Amino acid sequence: MASLDVALLLMPSILLAALLLDRLIGDPDWLWRRLPHPVVLFGGVIGWADRRLNVDEQPETARKRNGILFIIGSVLSALLLGLSLSSALGRAGIAGVLLEVLIVAVFFAHKSLLDHVRAVADGLRDGGLDGGRAAVSMIVGRDPKTLDEAGVSRAAIESLAENFSDGVVAPAFWYVLLGLPGLFAYKMINTADSMIGHMTEKHRAFGWASAKLDDLANWPPARLSALLIVLARPVAYAKSGCQISKEAKLHRSPNAGWPESAMAAVSGLSLGGPRTYHGDVADERFMNDAGRKDAGEADIRRCLRIADAAFWNGCGMLALAIWFRLIAH
To answer: How many CA atoms, within 13 angstroms, populate the side-chain half-sphere of residue 270?
Structure first.
């Protein structure tokens, strides 16, 4: 029982330290120029499987079967890797705890997300529309040439909201739930979805299972992310939770609509709407349709502050949980 109590206190403490470390340092270029990032290694495995198992000559049923078997095998491998590493670190005392903090921090992307979205605002300020388009092309898949300044700004804000969930809240959620095995498994699923979970002719069958599993893995974190964003600006929040739930369903993704609709509500902006991907127009509806659509550089910076406040809200909740656990003993 004592060891269980220590574990229940240690895991959130490691998580809080890792979140703060990521917020302070982020992803240092000098390190990842010399070492492969773990997500890059995951991506290498997924890319290999895509080349070997997703063969055009095979029927769609065979490619779908291969995709199902691959994602099951890769997730089980990630779970086993996390379990083995967690066991080894658990035997290393304080050194193991410190190393786990470093490992967990690597899988968060809050500072990196803020930096990339801030670069869009800086691009608009310093380089005008062309500068904004160049910067936003680094973080979104839509065609930047079709975007005016408002479109560039909304795209950056939507990416900020969605990736706050995928890159911060979801890894934290699965680490709290299952430790390193859960964190590794989530990142494998999320990386697979970003690489092969597309409704294109090449990946519709092979990536089907990865996309569905990613939807499942992100279901709770997306809704938690929306809550954290709303709590970041409770005074500015004018819509009911029911309204956010309704507008989240307007999004093509069952999860991304939650943080995006929450960001739309607290910022007063209208997000979503039609966009162009590789020449194809996705005619999507706006979330918070009554909000402003003429977003600009100042709105990006304001939403950056909202996302960072949401991050600190999460850290504060985690710190309170640790404190209550301490005083309970």
So the answer is: 13
The set of residues, in sequence order, having a beta carbon less than 8 Å from that of 187 and lying 6+ positions away, is 38, 39, 42, 78, 107, 171
Pair of tokens at residue 242: 């029911």
Burial (CB count within 10 angstroms: exposed 0-12, middle 13-18, buried 19+), residue 18: buried
CA distance 213 to 65: 14
Rounded distance between C-alpha atoms, residue 221 and residue 213, angstroms = 14
Per-residue pLDDT tens digits for 31-80: 888 888 999 999 999 999 999 999 988 999 999 999 999 999 999 999 99
**Predicted model pTM:** 0.92
Per the CB < 8 A criterion, the answer to whether 165 and 256 are in contact is yes
| Tokens linked to 182 | 């859960």
| Contact yes or no for 261/270 (Cβ under 8 A) | no
Q: Which of 21, 218, 181, 188 is nearest to 108 (CA)?
A: 21
